[in-house]
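B., you asked whether I could sanity-check this one before it goes into the benchmark set. Here's the sequence:
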Amino acid sequence: MGTVVLAIAFFSGPVLCLLALVTLVSDPQFERLTRARRAVRGWSRRRHGGEPGEPGGRPIEAIALDARRLGRQLQHANDGRSAARIAAIRHSYDDVLAEGCAALGIAELLGVLAEGPELDVERRRVEVVLIGAGLVLEDTF
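And here's what the prediction gave me:
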């Protein structure tokens, strides 16, 4: 008998709490819940960068400008720069390409792959995809 009462008490507590929570959630006039919903929405907006329809991040023009600048520096890397400086420029270029992909909704693996031929192939693939999406990565004279 004692174990039956204990089992009923054990399972009825969570069920009653769940029932109370469902009642609170389903009542839109409940003032505290409304404030909590607003707080959660505000936290979500701050975390994800604004309203759902609002663009987030830098303008695509600034991303393209940085990509062209860093691309030029990589093309002319044999002018006496150290290997560490060239690696830093290449890493920055990868970051800018990834930012352009994020702005245009394109999948990329630049931040995942280790240095080597796979990363070079992925960098070239991303450049081609971004150019195809309309981003100008090279200066035209």
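One thing to flag: The CA atoms of residues 70 and 87 lie 12 Å apart. Otherwise nothing jumped out at me.
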